[in-house]
Amino acid sequence: MPSSRANGGTNAATVEIPVIDLSYDPENSEISALRLVTALRPDWADPDAKVEFKRFTEGITNTLLKSVNKRKGASKESIDNEAILLRAYGHGTDVLIDRQRETQNHELLMQHGLAPELLARFSNGMMYRYLRGTVTTPNDLRKAPVYLAVARRLAQWHATMPCVPNPSAMSNGVAGSTNGTTPSSAMVAPNKPPPNVWTVMQKWLHALPQKTEKEQSRQKELQEEFSWLVEELSQRPGLGANGLVFAHCDLLCGNVIIETKAASSPATAEESVAFIDYEYATPSPAAFDLANHFAEWGGFECDYNVLPARTQRREFIAEYIRAYFAQLSNRPADVNVDREVDRMCQEVDVYRGLPGFYWGIWALIQATISQIDFNYAEYAEVRLGEYWAWKAEHTGQRKEKGEDLPLREKRWAEERA
Fold first, then answer.
1. What is the arithmetic mean of pLDDT over 105-131?
2. What Pfam families has UniProt attached to this entry (predicted)?
3. Are both 116 and 193 inside the same structural domain?
4. Contact 298/306 with Cβ under 8 angstroms?
């Protein structure tokens, strides 16, 4: 996806984001998209305007369109600089995502120069500035110059973005439904202020279908597993206040943009990346954000053969730790970088099964609400299978039963690619 650098400054959070009283209609995609972009940019409705749309298909939840005005005589660079990304939310995804919180996240990221300018919201989506660059593929994520750039940018997120709970969601210590929680999911993990990745998962578990006896049994089983996970993982030590950092939580290839280098950049200049789509961003253990990204090296096909081996994970984590402590405003004076790298490698190993649980319950919900042509039910079983394989290894059950290592666990244990 060719991208321009994040166009947020210190005033970004004080700018009121326009709300357009229109919606995107997937059945009349181009017509409804044109109405939205011309409402934002009335001059694009002029007779000499030539508005075109390009659909991106890297995601499996939302519709993402790039809109450009190919004005006569305009250069490709100037056209891209004026381009707009239109993102329409997937059908029914409000049960999964707090859209108000997503907008707050985007505005806060703008303020820190970590997100493109949010131009407008509409009833079922938003429009923001196009980032000049290239959308990564799973293969790109596995290239050292790219994954080291991802490590540096992720460290910047974790070191500089505050984990600020939404005060309006708190009442007598109980979180309301705005912040990705329900009253019964507030403070799921002791001493972890909501919202966070634990309250998000609890909300999703409440949203699982329970119409049939089979669905009720599945929901109960997963709720029991979640309670065990909270007890097992939530109080582990980690980076950030309360062991939480502001995490992206969805660093798949379609959300990582390799930024276009300036013409004056030396040929040896490091790659630079930007992240887009912040709908799942929430305070989380840093190890979960890293483990979740490593899982995306295999793409939606979940190709376990290409997941990062130990040496690759350590190289990524070493770059991440160096960048994290270099940008941390209250860096301790006695930081031992090597020890922190060792610690984070261990934590990511522990958290490697949680992304499978997270996306597994997400996919079970999507299977009941989504209108996108994707087999969410099958995807849910694949991802939950990752979780069960990790748990069997974590608890020693696999060895007790004398079973072979599953492919994903075998790959994770390999030393080199």
1. 95
2. Choline_kinase
3. no
4. yes
pLDDT of residue 124: 94
Give the tens place of pLDDT for each residue, 362-394.
Answer: 999 999 988 888 899 999 999 999 999 999 999
Mark whether 141 and 127 lie in a shared domain: no
pLDDT of residue 340: 98
Number of structural domains found in the chain: 2
Instruction: Give pLDDT, residue 11.
Output: 40
Burial class (CB in 10 A: 0-12, 13-18, 19+), 161: buried
Q: So what's the pLDDT on residue 183?
A: 44
Let me know whether 215 and 104 are in one domain: no
Average pLDDT for the chain = 89
| Residue 95 · residue 207 · CB < 8 Å | yes
Q: Between helices 144-160 and 286-295, what is the axis angle to 10°? A: 150
C-alpha of 299 from chain center: 14
Residue 39 belongs to what domain range?
A: 1-131
**Residue where a domain terminates, one of 131, 146, 173:** 131
Residue holding tokens 């749309």?
53
**Stated pTM of the model:** 0.89
Show the tokens assigned to 342.
Answer: 């060792």
The residue among 102, 131, 160 that closes a domain is 131
| Distance separating alpha carbons of residues 80 and 249, to the nearest angstrom | 28
Name the residue with higher pLDDT: 314 or 164: 314
CA distance 258 to 254: 11
306 and 162 co-located in one domain? yes
Locate 223 and state its tokens. 């709720």
The packing angle between helices 354-369 and 197-207, to 10°, is 40
Lowest-pLDDT choice from 139-143, 265-269, 311-315: 265-269
| CA-atom Rg of the chain in angstroms | 22
If asked whether residues 84 and 198 sit together in one domain, one would say no
Is 287 found in the same domain as 236? yes
